[in-house]
Amino acid sequence: GQVPFTMERIASIYGMRYGGQRLLVFKEVLMRTILTYCRAWAAMGVAWGATAGAAGVAVFVGIPYGLCVDSLLGRWVPNPFAWIPRVWAAFVTHVCMRGILGVRVVVRGTVAPARARELVLCIGNHPSALGMPIIGWVITRYLAPRIVAVGKREHVWNPFIGWPLMIARAVILINRSDRAAAHTSIRDGLRRLSDAARALIIFPDMRRPTLARIAADCEKFADRIPNIRAWLRHTLVPRTGGLAAILQSVHGSVRIIHVTGAFDVEEFGIGDAPRIIGRTYYVDVVEHSDPPLPTDDAALARVLNALWEAKNRQIAAWRLARN
């Protein structure tokens, strides 16, 4: 007959004798694992609820408001939905990350916050889904209360990311394959922004890193970037298109902030939520000094590659120090 699924059977699967200290250790490890996963998925459930709530407000309230009021009076009336990204990032960071998962957030660097009517350009490595709300909270808490992201135009079809950001006027969507169209989109987007202090965010590496994507970039850029296989471990390779279009559109009248963010443990997204319990998320914030960033693609690529090599080595140091 079938062997009953008992603690004896479970222990035998792992090569343990039933009874004694070994079984007690096994039971403790099993319970700890169950509680870890319950805690992780509870945090993700609350985060998804907050995201769905923000999307619901944007869709069912923001769209009618945008069609009836904002389209006519948006130039003179402040957008009441501009708070959505800031509140969402703060809620997920404090309730889900710090509260439920026990994540510590360490912000390093001293950068003056944006002044009234000032635009600051934040250039950072693309965070994972777990790091995104923390990056958003740090920027809105310490740099500017309003953030505007530069993203791919495909987000226009995304009701959870694109729609809330569009309703809040917190995103500039560009066609990355068409430089002229990207220039136009950025200029028009900056013109529509209010006079409030704001941070424009761009991630030149474009996508969330995964092991497969990192390996593909190592292979793709091995002949163009010296020694890339030795340092590309935690991000993708930065691309120049979107950033060059921004730099050419603002004509140098912007303060540039470099942002590096990562956990002290390797993780690539929501599936790794159990791994970040009790861990630390580091954020380095550094103001760019002279010389100014070039707008020429080749020169800008060399500067970004050097910056991303430094980012990868910094992330590696954070993880090595903890482990």
Number of strands: 7
pLDDT below 50 for ≥5 consecutive residues: which ranges?
none
**Which percent band covers the strand fraction?**
5-15%
What's the end-to-end separation, in Å? 47 Å
Alpha plus pi helix count: 10
Mean pLDDT: 85
Characteristic key phrases:
323 residues; alpha/beta; seven-stranded mixed sheet
List strands and helices in order, with pairings.
Layout: H1 7-13, H2 20-73, H3 84-100, E1 104-108, E2 119-124, H4 132-142, E3 146-152, H5 162-167, E4 171-174, H6 179-192, E5 198-202, H7 211-221, H8 228-231, H9 241-250, E6 255-263, E7 280-287, H10 297-322
Parallel strand pairs: 1-7, 2-5, 2-6, 3-4, 3-5
Antiparallel strand pairs: 6-7
Explain what the structure shows.
The chain has 323 residues and is an alpha/beta fold. 50% of the residues lie in helices and 14% in strands. It contains 10 helices and 7 strands. The chain has a 7-stranded mixed beta sheet with strand order 1-7-6-2-5-3-4, with helices on both faces. Helix 5 (162-167) links the parallel strand 3 (146-152) and strand 4. Helix 2 (20-73) packs antiparallel against helix 3, helix 3 (84-100) crosses helix 4 and helix 6 packs across helix 9 (241-250).
Summarize the structure.
50% of the residues lie in helices and 14% in strands. By secondary structure, the protein is of the alpha/beta class.
